[in-house]
Design goal:
Number of strands: 11
CATH superfamily: Spore Coat Polysaccharide Biosynthesis Protein SpsA, Chain A
Radius of gyration: 18 Å
Strand content: 15-25%
Shape: globular
Distance between the termini: 38 Å
CATH topology: Spore Coat Polysaccharide Biosynthesis Protein SpsA, Chain A
Bound molecules: cytidine-5'-triphosphate, magnesium ion
Oligomer: single chain
Structural class: alpha/beta
Largest sheet: 7 strands, mixed
Length: 237
């Protein structure tokens, strides 16, 4: 049987650094909640069989969004950290997906993912033994800070990348990787880190810098600008 593709959207965070009265995935971005932009790309994609979305158990905002009753979206309770939320969503997926199926994990807080970046990531996968993620080589000179705020050293930049999402792995491998990490009390901040702990090497696929994670208030107008620049506003409104 040919492997299918599924998406997992961790959306159970509170957005502490954003400091808004609602979690950042529900803030308005060009007329729609942030999460509708992040999720919409996967629901439109012909290769994605279904989406599992991890939400705070007390989330009151999700039911009012456009895809709440979508037939290919399943809701699951998130956990205390992103890695718990992703694992819960994978466990739910495992009820209908095969261990060899591919799962794309994408942050709800990344609404500006480009379809061509997603497609390029998918195109690299079929022959890859582990999986991979979108990222970008860092541009600035990197410094390692000391506890007193001084510089310890300059870190050579040529091998350093920013890690974005989507991050894609086979369902069975990613569940095992996250379970193993959590068993060792390693609260990994992305999915690749869990897979790396198994001694495996996920592949870095270069994407575009506009795939930002909305984190602080100034990121919202920037995301608005990027969506306009991508021409997505006219089409989707
Ligand atoms: N996330 C999640 N479950 C958690 C924490 C985070 O599903 N327990 C999700 C967020 O909703 C977000 C993604 O993981 O889509 C990336 O996390 P981050 O940007 O850190 O979001 P928050 O944790 O909400 O923000 P902050 O760290 O500022 O509180
Ligand atoms: Mg967080």
């Amino acid at each position: 049987m040919r492997a299918r593709y599924w998406a997992v959207i961790p959306a159970a965070g509170v957005g502490r650094r954003m400091g808004a009265s609602v979690p950042k995935q529900y803030l308005d971005l060009a007329g729609r909640p942030v999460i509708e932009w992040s999720l919409g790309l996967f629901l439109e994609h012909p290769q994605i069989s279904g989406v599992s979305i991890a939400l705070d158990p007390g989330d009151r905002f999700w039911p009012r969004t456009a895809f709440a009753d979508h037939s290919r979206v399943r809701r699951v309770d998130g956990g205390s950290e992103r890695c718990h939320s992703v694992l819960n969503a994978l466990d739910l997926l495992a009820q209908e997906a095969d261990a060899a199926d591919w799962v794309l994990v994408h942050d709800a807080a990344r609404p500006c993912l480009r379809r061509d970046d997603l497609d390029r990531l998918l195109a690299t996968l079929p022959d890859h033994p582990v999986g991979g993620l979108l990222g970008m080589p860092v541009r600035d000179t990197m410094k390692q800070a000391m506890e007193d705020g001084g510089i310890g050293r300059t870190v050579p930049r040529d091998t350093l990348w920013h890690a974005f999402t989507p991050q894609v792995f086979r369902l069975g491998l990613l569940r095992r990787a996250l379970r193993t990490a959590l068993d060792q009390d390693r609260l990994v901040t992305d999915d690749a880190a869990a897979v790396e702990l198994l001694g495996l090497e996920p592949m870095l696929v270069e994407g575009h810098a506009d795939n930002i994670k909305i984190t602080r208030p100034e990121d919202l107008p920037l995301a608005d600008f990027y969506l306009r620049q991508q021409g997505r506003l006219h089409r989707e409104r």
